C-alpha cells in the first residue's frame, strides 16, 4: 500500500458495533475478491486433473472434489478475513513476523516454486485451448496466453481492483458455461455419482490423481492471493503506511468507513458464491468425463478428450469445452501472476516490475511447450507440486487467524481452528501417503 503519514490501522482493535450507516455500500457491491480468487480453482490444472480422473476411474473420485471444495470454503474465508481485518496479505504478515532472514527466504523459495508450477499449468492450458480452437502451435499459444495475462494485470495495476474483478468475473462466466454445458447434453448416472461419494482409492495412480485434484482445488497461490485481493479491494480511501514498524493509531474500519463485521458478512457470501460455482464446474468436468469418456482410449489427455467429445456429443460441446479452457487459462494466469508478485513483495520486501517478472515466470512453461513434453501430463504433475505446497500456506494461515494479537476480536473460534487443523492434517497425510506409495512402488 502507498505510504503517507505513518499511521496504520490497529488489527487488534475491538470490533465496532456501528451498523446501518447510510454511506455503507450494499452487500452485493462488496462481493468480488473471492470470485477472482475462485478462478484459481478453475484453472487448466483442474480441468486436466478432473478430466483424467473421470476418464480413468469413472465416478471413483467424486468424493475428493466435494471434500476439497468444502475445505476450500473455510480456507478462502480465513485468507480473506486476514486481509480485511489486518489490512495486510498473508505474505506480508509472514514477512513481518518471520525474523530469521534465511528462514524467510527459504519460505519464499517454496512459495515461488508453487507459483511457477501454477503458471506452468495455466499457460499450457491456454496454449492447448488455442491449438484446439485455431490450430495455433503450442509454443506460440503459450506466448499469446502470457501476453494477454500481462494486459489483464495492467488493468489491475492502472485501473484498480474493481475493473479487474469485472473482467475476471466475465471470464469466469465463460468458463462455467464452457465446462458445464456437456453435462446437460449427456447427463451422468445418478447411482454412479452417489457411489462416488464413498471415500476410497484404487491403486497408486488414483492416489496421485486425488492429490492432483486437491492441489488444483485448494491452491496455495489462491490462499496468498485472496488475502491480498481483499486487502486491495477494501483499502481505505486515504492512504496509510503498512510498512513494518509503522505507528499504530487509527482502527482500519475508521479509515474505511465500513464496519468490519459487515465486510466479513459480505465475504462469507462472496466465498460461498465463488466456491459453489467452482465446485459445481469442477464436478461437472469430472462427471462429463466419467459419463462419456470412461474406457475410451486416449481420453486421459485434453486433446483426446476434446476429440472424443466432438465425436460423441457433437462439435458444439467440444468447442464450448475448448472456449472454457481458453478462458480458464487467460483468467487464472493473471491471478497466478498477481499472487506471485505479492509473494515476493510480502516476504522479500522487493517489488519487481510487472513485465519483467511475468517474462521470467513464463520461461518454464514455454520451455515445456518447446521441448514437446505431454501438456496434460505436465498439467497433472504441476497440480501435485501445488498439493505439496498447501501445508506451507495453510498451517500459517490457520495459526495466524487464531491469534488475538493478529486479528483481535475477530480471531477464529475454537471450532474454526479445529476444522482448519483437521484440513491441514488430512492434506499432509494424503501427501505423505502419496510419497510413500510412489517411492516404494506399491
Explain this structure to me?
The protein has 442 residues and is mainly alpha-helical. Helix content is 75%, strand content 1%. The chain is built from 19 helices and 2 strands. It has helices at residues 27-30, 33-38, 44-57, 62-86, 90-97, 101-134, 138-159, 161-185, 190-195, 204-217, 220-233, 252-256, 260-292, 302-313, 315-348, 354-371, 375-401, 404-407, 414-440, and strands spanning 7-8, 247-248. The chain has a two-stranded parallel ribbon with strand order 1-2. Helix 4 (62-86) packs parallel to helix 10 (204-217), helix 4 (62-86) packs antiparallel against helix 13 and helix 6 crosses helix 16. The longest helix has 34 residues, at 101-134. Mean pLDDT is 83; it is low at 1-10, 12-22 and 244-248.
Distance between the termini: 50 Å
Strands in their spatial order, largest beta sheet? 1-2
Which outline best applies?
A: globular
Low-confidence stretches: 1-10, 12-22, 244-248
Main sheet characteristics: 2 strands, parallel
Radius of gyration over all CA atoms, rounded: 21 Å
Helix count, per DSSP?
19
Strand tally is: 2
- What amount of the residues lies in strands? under 5%
Order of helices and strands: EHHHHHHHHHHHEHHHHHHHH
Determine the fraction of residues in helical runs and give it as a percent range. Answer: over 70%
Give the rounded overall mean pLDDT.
83
Question: Which class do the helix and strand fractions yield?
Answer: mainly alpha
